[in-house]
């Protein structure tokens, strides 16, 4: 476990004004840093060969005067560029501690990571890559840097925030630079964006900060890394403009996320309110609530040079114009490997809160527990997760009941502790608020009730994404207690391929993940591997654990099953301008109708995120085909392929044989072994 210190504690005992006005004369700087004002940076960008080439190209191809293109470039850059102001930052350094002291109990940071970063700031330009779970991520990162006297980052921020009057300029003066969510084939914007980022990276005056996931994860899971901005930021190293770049992974862990209800609603497809200053003012009611602790883990800096030297030949750029963005295939592959390396590091240093353990239990048993039973199971799950490699934020000075009750009270939006010490999910059948079965009359009622289970699942996913490989391997046993290693691997391979968009799996490493995961479960004395008979036996000590772990993945199995079932019963082609989202919405309505009819209670399967991921995965597996055209595009599929995939998936789902002729889960030595030939 890492050593953390609470950086809010000094603020509770000392004047905030003294903190805000403290000297920054000793802030470490990159040894080759080139200090430029905002105006000088813009002038450098506009005078760059890359931009001149792009302006000439656009002027020639589109028949637009060069002056008009230059004017457009200046306007875009003015709108994009940050204007970090120490005066503004000092003002916020006075305000934010007052807000954090009201909202939070603790703000923990690993001091060791900070000192490692401080010692290497002078060696190379810095890129900070935090996880992205909340709007406040970049403000927390800036606050941490200010507290420890580190250079304050300039931060890639979505254009949405630039539409918030007054707030947009406050964020800009904190170091935010605004970029569009996508800019496709807009050559001028691409050139300005690339040159602006690289000019700042080469100058090395401020660390660059952005989120590999591209956007906030609403699900609590990691999103696949977006490589565009990372590739742009790495190009100065590939082309020899900087000797090295240091990549710093940062993991944020929140006890309670400010936007938790908003995230749950968005997963159901309920549109989020547009970012606006008036919306921010209306949200001031959050100041009346408690949000627990935040853990910030600053990772060891990763040297791009040390990682790249064995495999990247930078001399290939010597014969190419330096103003053309042109990464080699090896450099593109390296960028992807670096992104996955960072996400591996981030994932391993996520701290699981007591509430996440509570949510994981309640997701499987929403009708509730007695408090005594609940505390017992929370402690059991804490030990299980720890043995499997998860890091648990578990203060040792408190009793289990004290910890559990405090977290339940903090998360009163989703759960309640009342009615003779019964722990239950709010507004759910069987909870104290709902003594009789819930009946629905319309889709809106279903979606309204689904918000709470969706929020519970979001927090459960914090642990699930950490234990995804273990949960998938546990599911691969299909309830049997003895299985051939080859058969187990085939099932594991199928599920990792099926869930490639749900969880972060490095490309082409299933072969190494399988034995590593098997060994992890064996070291916990849950399994016994017989190399002579090439079988795996579930020991009595592991039955409960494997059942629980496989239950964690069950909502995803059911969701994917429902998608396949819908496609099987539908025409084999859909054409639409927005066909993928249309299919997902139709499937969601189909599932909701089953809930209304009382046939299902699987609220998690209403998640549009899950349904879209299922469709994307099925396209990748070539179960369904996706084509694009000038009129939009289409999804097509063959009923035989859908049914074949349902047969494969049905093996893992208890009771699926009731929905179609699926081989029943059971002894792997029986008919279930036919799965190998199907795969």
From TrEMBL:
Transmembrane segments: none annotated. It is a peripheral membrane protein. The keyword Metal-binding does not apply. GO terms for biological process: ether lipid biosynthetic process; fatty acid metabolic process; phospholipid biosynthetic process; triglyceride biosynthetic process. Residues 126-255 form the Phospholipid/glycerol acyltransferase domain. It is found in: Endomembrane system. It holds the Pfam family Acyltransferase. One of its GO terms (cellular component) is endomembrane system. Keywords: Acyltransferase, Membrane, Transferase. Residues 669-679 have a biased composition (Polar residues). Residues 657-679 are annotated as: Disordered. One of its GO terms (molecular function) is glycerol-3-phosphate O-acyltransferase activity. Belongs to the GPAT/DAPAT family. This is Dihydroxyacetone phosphate acyltransferase. The lineage of its organism: Eukaryota, Metazoa, Echinodermata, Eleutherozoa, Echinozoa.
């Amino acid at each position: 476990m890492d050593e953390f210190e609470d950086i809010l504690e000094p603020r509770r005992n000392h004047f905030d004004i003294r903190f805000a006005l403290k000297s920054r004369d000793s802030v470490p700087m990159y040894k080759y840093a080139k200090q430029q004002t905002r105006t000088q940076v813009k002038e450098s960008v506009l005078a760059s060969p890359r931009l001149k080439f792009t302006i000439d190209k656009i002027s020639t191809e589109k028949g637009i005067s060069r002056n008009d293109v230059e004017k457009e470039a200046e306007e875009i850059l003015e709108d994009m560029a940050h204007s970090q102001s120490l005066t503004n930052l000092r003002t916020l350094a006075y305000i934010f501690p007052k807000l954090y002291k009201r909202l939070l109990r603790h703000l923990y940071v690993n001091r060791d990571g900070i000192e490692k970063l401080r010692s290497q700031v002078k060696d190379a330009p810095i890129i900070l890559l935090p996880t992205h779970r909340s709007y406040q991520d970049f403000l927390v990162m800036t606050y941490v840097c200010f507290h420890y006297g580190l250079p304050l980052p300039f931060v890639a921020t979505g254009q949405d925030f630039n539409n918030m009057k007054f707030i947009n300029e406050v964020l800009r003066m904190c170091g935010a630079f605004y970029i569009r969510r996508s800019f496709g084939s807009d050559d001028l914007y691409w050139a300005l964006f690339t040159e602006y980022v690289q000019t700042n990276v080469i100058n090395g005056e401020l660390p660059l900060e952005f989120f590999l996931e591209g956007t906030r994860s609403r699900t609590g899971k990691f999103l696949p890394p977006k490589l565009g901005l990372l590739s742009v930021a790495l190009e100065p190293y590939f082309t020899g403009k900087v000797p090295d770049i240091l990549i710093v992974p940062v993991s944020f862990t929140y006890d309670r996320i400010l936007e938790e209800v908003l995230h749950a609603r968005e997963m159901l497809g309920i549109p989020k309110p547009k970012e606006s200053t008036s919306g921010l003012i209306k949200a001031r009611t959050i100041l009346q609530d408690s949000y627990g602790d935040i853990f910030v883990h600053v990772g060891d800096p990763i040297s791009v040079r040390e990682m790249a030297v064995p495999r990247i030949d930078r001399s290939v750029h010597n014969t190419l114009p330096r103003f053309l963005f042109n990464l080699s295939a090896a450099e593109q592959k390296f960028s992807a490997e670096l992104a996955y390396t960072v996400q591996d590091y981030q994932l391993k240093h996520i701290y699981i809160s007591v509430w996440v353990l509570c949510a994981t239990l309640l997701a499987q048993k929403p009708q509730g527990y007695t408090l005594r039973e609940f505390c017992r199971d929370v402690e059991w799950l804490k030990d299980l997760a720890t043995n499997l490699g998860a890091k648990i934020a578990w203060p040792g000075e408190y009793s289990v009941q004290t910890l559990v009750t405090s977290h339940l009270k903090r998360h009163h939006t989703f759960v309640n502790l009342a009615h003779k010490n019964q722990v239950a999910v709010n507004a759910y059948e069987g909870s104290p608020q709902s003594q009789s079965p819930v009946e629905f009359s319309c889709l809106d009622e279903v979606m309204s009730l689904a918000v709470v289970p969706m929020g519970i699942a979001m927090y459960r996913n914090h642990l699930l994404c950490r234990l995804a490989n273990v949960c998938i391997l546990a599911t691969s046993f299909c309830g049997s207690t003895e299985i051939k290693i080859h058969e187990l691997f085939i099932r594991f391979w199928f599920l990792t391929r099926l869930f490639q968009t749900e969880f972060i799996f490095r490309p082409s490493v299933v072969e190494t993940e399988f034995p590593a995961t098997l060994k992890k479960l064996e070291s916990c004395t849950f399994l016994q591997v017989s190399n002579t008979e090439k079988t795996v036996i579930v020991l009595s000590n592991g039955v409960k654990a494997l059942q629980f772990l496989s239950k964690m993945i069950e909502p995803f199995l059911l969701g994917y099953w429902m998608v396949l079932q819908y496609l099987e019963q539908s025409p084999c082609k859909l054409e639409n301008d927005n066909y993928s989202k249309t299919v997902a919405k139709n499937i969601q309505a189909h599932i909701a109708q089953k809930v209304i009819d009382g046939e299902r209670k699987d609220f998690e399967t209403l998640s549009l995120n899950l349904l879209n991921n299922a469709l994307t995965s099925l396209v990748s597996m070539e179960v369904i085909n996706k084509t694009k055209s000038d009129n939009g595009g289409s999804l097509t599929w063959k009923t035989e392929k859908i049914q074949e995939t349902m047969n494969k998936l049905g093996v893992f789902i208890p009771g699926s044989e009731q929905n179609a002729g699926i081989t029943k889960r059971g002894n792997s030595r029986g008919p279930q072994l036919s799965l190998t030939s199907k795969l």
